[in-house]
Amino acid sequence: MGDENRRILQMNLVVADTGPLLHLCEIESFDLLRCFGGSIQATPIVLDEFRKYQPDYFRDFFPGWVMRVSISAATTALANQWTTSGWVDPGEAEALANAKHVDADLFLTDDSAARTLAESLGLEARGTLGVILYAAATGAMTRSDAFRTLADLERRSTLWMSARVKDSARAAISRIAGEP
Questions:
Q1: CATH code for the domain of 107
Q2: In a domain, 4, yes or no
């Protein structure tokens, strides 16, 4: 796909759950999140979970484009409803309730239940693979870098992906980033 045909969308407000932050960190590709062109909002529970699993990665502070957001009482109440119902875990619920509250352009999660709930609320949702595909589609990374990043995700991250998902991701990279 040539640059003249490539439409680049800027996602100005992205809310992330812990999963994509963690998995991109595990493969040393956290900066891929910058491809959205705006800020990445993370709630207190999400950042606490991230620090639990990656205590040394951002020991003192997160990059300026990762914004720690405060959660309103109404947002907390909605998150608690989803957690109590058993639909999603606390971090996913808090991040999703925040995404709904701020009318986010994109909600990042690797949890299928959280993704389904987000889509039922009218929010666009993608996971770590979606970040890689978006970066490839917008030219933020080359085709070979996208394949290498996918391989790193398979080998070095805690993200579980089925063989079908892996194959689909490879095919998508070939389509969006062009064949050699």
A1: 3.40.50.1010
A2: no
Give yes or no for a contact between 107 and 118, defined as CB atoms under 8 angstroms apart: yes
What is the pTM assigned to this prediction?
A: 0.88
Considering its fold, how many domains does the chain have in total?
A: 2
In a domain, 1, yes or no: no
Residue 62, domain extent: 10-128
Each residue's pLDDT expressed in tens, for the chain with a length of 180 residues:
344 333 345 557 999 999 999 999 999 999 999 988 888 999 999 999 998 998 887 766 678 888 889 999 999 999 999 999 998 999 999 999 999 999 999 999 999 999 999 999 999 999 999 999 999 999 999 999 999 999 999 999 999 999 999 999 999 999 986 655
